[in-house]
UniProtKB/TrEMBL annotation:
This is Sulfhydryl oxidase. Gene3D superfamilies: ERV/ALR sulfhydryl oxidase domain. It comes from the Eukaryota. PROSITE patterns: ERV_ALR. Coiled coil: none annotated. One of its GO terms (molecular function) is flavin adenine dinucleotide binding. It catalyses: 2 R'C(R)SH + O2 = R'C(R)S-S(R)CR' + H2O2. GO terms for cellular component: mitochondrion. Residues 1-52 form the ERV/ALR sulfhydryl oxidase domain. It is an enzyme of class 1 (oxidoreductase). InterPro entries: ALR/ERV (IPR039799), ERV/ALR_sulphydryl_oxid_sf (IPR036774), ERV/ALR_sulphydryl_oxidase (IPR017905). Keywords: Disulfide bond, FAD, Flavoprotein, Oxidoreductase.
């Protein structure tokens, strides 16, 4: 049943992949559509960047680089 609903949701709201932010916004909005259907509370999508760090390479620039010798 979930798969059928999700396939319909994907047809009505195709993934937005033009940027990392667009995909994150799409995923959160899609999550909230499912939550609404299940009677669960909505997630505040404006807090995505605070709640989930992107793991981007530039985030670790303050950390000391380490190497592993073979």
């Amino acid at each position: 049943m979930f798969a059928e609903h999700f396939q319909k949701l994907l047809k009505e709201h195709p993934p937005q992949t033009s940027s990392r932010a667009a995909l994150s916004d799409w995923a959160c909005a899609t999550h909230n559509i499912v939550n609404e259907r299940l009677g669960k509370p909505e997630f505040d999508c404006s807090t995505l960047s605070d709640v989930y760090k992107c793991g981007c390479a530039d985030e670790g620039q303050d950390q000391e680089a380490t190497t592993v010798d073979p």
